[in-house]
């Protein structure tokens, strides 16, 4: 409810700028590369992506905190990608040339994203939980089999277009093992952890690095 309201009244741009600043601060303060983290992701909405000064705004914070653009991964939801305009596409290409990475989020929930995958420089594509969970949750065997075929085909297609995969919504070991079989690079979900504050997240990463 909160995000749609913020998008409709225009305050989302100010909110997202605060998030951008905090992410850049975190990357700098925590020295994420020493923790084995390649990047931190930022979700940007369509109102952000149509701002002509978006590349300048992002580079300003990158320079202030002395970090590299490749340490930021910009997430765009599949439904947002369906409403791409010329300015959005121009910003994506410009930011990509500057070194920022891009992720297409929630793949499997929209309608026109296949053409976006062909045209836009997405480094990572996230398979939505609506692709990941049905092979194990549907009641009829035929439906589970079809859902598994769709999951396998989606993972294969993402790899074939040169992007890395993230599987969202993983909650069971059975799902995890299947995604490993599909060579899924990154896997996220409640099986591993729930959302947590920055300090707790850093402690979890440090603990895993000691294993």
Describe the protein in words.
There is one protein chain. The radius of gyration is 18 Å and the shape is globular. The chain has a single domain, classed as TIM Barrel. The protein has twelve helices and six strands. The protein has helices at residues 2-9, 12-30, 46-49, 54-64, 78-81, 86-98, 113-119, 129-132, 134-137, 141-160, 173-181, 198-209, and strands spanning 40-43, 72-77, 101-107, 124-127, 164-167, 186-187. α11 links the parallel β5 (164-167) and β6 (186-187). α2 (12-30) runs parallel beside α4. The longest helix is centred in the C-terminal third of the chain and has 20 residues, at 141-160. A six-stranded parallel sheet has the order 1-2-3-4-5-6. It has 211 residues and is an alpha/beta fold.
The coarse overall form would be globular
CATH topology: TIM Barrel
> Helix content range of the residues, please?
40-55%
Q: For the record, what is the CATH homologous superfamily label? A: EAL domain
Radius of gyration: 18 Å
CATH architecture: Alpha-Beta Barrel
Main beta-sheet annotation: 6 strands, parallel
Average pLDDT, to the nearest integer?
Answer: 92
How much strand?
A: 5-15%
Uncertain regions: pLDDT < 50 for 5+ in a row?
Answer: none
Order of helices and strands: HHEHHEHHEHEHHHEHEH
Return the CATH class. Alpha Beta
In the residues, how many domains can be counted? 1
Count every beta strand, where a strand is a DSSP E run of 2 or more residues: 6
Please give the alpha-carbon distance between the first and last residues.
40 Å
The order of strands across the largest sheet is 1-2-3-4-5-6
Number of helices: 12
Q: Which structural class do the helices and strands define?
A: alpha/beta
